[in-house]
Amino acid sequence: VAQQEAQRAAFLVERAKQERQQKIVQAEGEAKSAE
User: Domain of life of the organism in this record (predicted)?
Assistant: First the structure.
């Protein structure tokens, strides 16, 4: 069970990183189009 919890935590962290990266890319795209 502990291993499953660890894998789940790692998955959530990975997903959070990807979402944050997407938001950054989106923000940069909006900033470029605003110029």
Answer: Eukaryota
